Structures are given as C-alpha cells and as structure tokens.
Amino acid sequence: MRYRDLGRTGMEVSAYCLGTMMFGAVGNPDHDECVRIIHAALDAGINFVDTADMYSAGESETIVGKALRGSRRDEVVLATKGHFQMGEGRNRSGNSRRWIVRAVEDSLTRLGTDRIDLYQIHRPDPRTDVEETLGVLGDLVREGKIRAFGCSTFPAEEIAESHHVAERRALQRFRTEQPPYSILARGIEANVLPVCRRYGMGVLTWSPLASGFLSGKYRPGREVDLSSGRAALTPARFDPAVPGNEAKLAAAGRLIEVADGIGRTLPELAVAFPLAHPAVTSVIIGPRTMDQLGDLLKGASLQLDDETLDRIDEIVPPGTDLYRADGAWRPAALTDVTQRRRPAGDR
User: Fold this and answer.
1) For the chain, what are the domain ranges?
2) Residue 218 known to be catalytic
C-alpha cells in the first residue's frame, strides 16, 4: 500500500480509501461481516475510512464505529460527511450553522468517537452563504470535534469562491475535495482537479468503477441483464437502447483489451487510473463483500505506465464525460425551472 499527504492537513493517508456506502441496509445489512471487511482493509494497509451520515440513514456510521472501537480508532484517518436530509422535519439538512452543529454531534455519537479527522460538506447548498458554512466548521475545529474539513462534489467555481471568501474573512478553508472520477467520467480534469492543485487541496475520488460499468460485466455484444445488480437500480444507465450507452459499452470493451494487455482485470485498471493524476491523493473503493474487497486490493500496487495511459486517452480523451456519476450534483440553475425562465408576464 502506498501513502500520500492529504493536501496540507499534515495527515498521511493510504492511496486506497475504504468507502462504506454499501455497509448497512442499502448494501450489506450484516454488521458483523461489514466489521470484518473493515478490519481486513486495515490489515491490508488501508488507514483511511470514509462514510457519511446519510448512508443507510446513519447505519453505515454505526457499523464503522463498531469496527473502530478500542485501539483501532487511532490507526485510522476517519472521514464522514453531512448535508443531506436526515429524518423528518425542516432544518434537518443543508450547510447552515444550525444543521452542521447538530449533524456533527449525531455523527460523533454514531461513530462512537470524540473527534472526526475529516468532516466533509457532502454537496453545495445554494440557500446558505459559504461564509456561514466555513465559519461553523472553523469553530468545530477549534472545539476539537473535527480535525480538518473539506467539500464533496463541488464545482470548480464554488471551490474557488470558498477560498476567496476564506481569505477575505480570515476563515479556515476547505482542505479537501471528494469528486466523482473514472475513466468514463473525466470532466473534472479540465477544472476541478487543476483548482484543487492550485489551492493545495487533498483529493479523494469516488466511483472509479463508474457505478459498475467498469466492473468487466458489461461489454459490447453481450446482453445486459437489467433486472439485477446496479442495472436494476438504474436501468436507463445500462440499457444499450438508451442513447449514449452504446458509447460506454464500446469504451468498456476496448478498456478490457487494455487491461488484458498488461495482465490485469478491468476493475484493477479502473481503480489505478485516478491515482495516476498528480492532483489525486486517494481513490475510494466501496466493496459490499469480502470477495469484492479482495479483488479490488489485488490492484493496490498497480501503477500505470505512460503507454497504458496513452491508450486510455485514445479511448476516452482527457476531460471527456461518457458517464454522469450517480448522485453527482447539478446546480439549481439547471434543476430549478424558475431560475431559467422569466415569469410569463415578463418575457
């Protein structure tokens, strides 16, 4: 296992980060097995664990807390996230001071710890001034409840704005960003990753397998079973009849040939790819089972050479998105029709 500095936080983390989104009701509901998977990852050299309050409505954090009880806690750089709706009622989501203070306390309780090493704002919140968000996060650092804080799936312009606000207002700033990044989703190479490098931010990327599209299961000419696995959850993303999916299938087929050419599997190639970018600190792997963890760890030592990266560039050019990651943020300017259309009487 390789280790890298997490931006300028002073913390050193493994190049693989164990993502725990699949632990709990959404993925693997067996707490004991999930604990064993976490312990196996730590035994393999992973010292970076990422979760979030909204993963299985807090159940993932509870499982992580069970796994890290005792001496294990000090071995790990523990990261979690907040922003999404938790429970019923108003003011139980977002990036306001009111909610973040509550969300951090709830995460600490579920995780069974007195501090979070990296607390991340899971998505932007257009209703909340970033100054308020940075202010409360800085207060939580001073209180010792979090050690550092970052953002997740923020567009480049909002990352840059947050740094400008922090400088103008003498506030602490985001130290990390967690964006989706894979061979099929390379758009962040044009903006997010250069901005993160400019500000010395650590980067931990998610969805290296493109929600399973780079698992090796999907390829041209092979019938896609839309009733099972990831395809059952979002069939339109995998159905060859949907425009755009043929291009993804064709790319996956060619990438399998690249992986075969270096004696590796497509998942190993896919997970190694983000780590070749100089802005990327760690890539999040999200196994659901022990077998999946073992398969992903087989590529831990893989470092792609220039020839292999050139072949990947030919298949999916730099900065190109053939795939939009599940849960990736879209600005209100696109999702809220009232921000795109004048009132009928004022057109």
Assistant:
1) 3-211+274-305+316-332
2) no
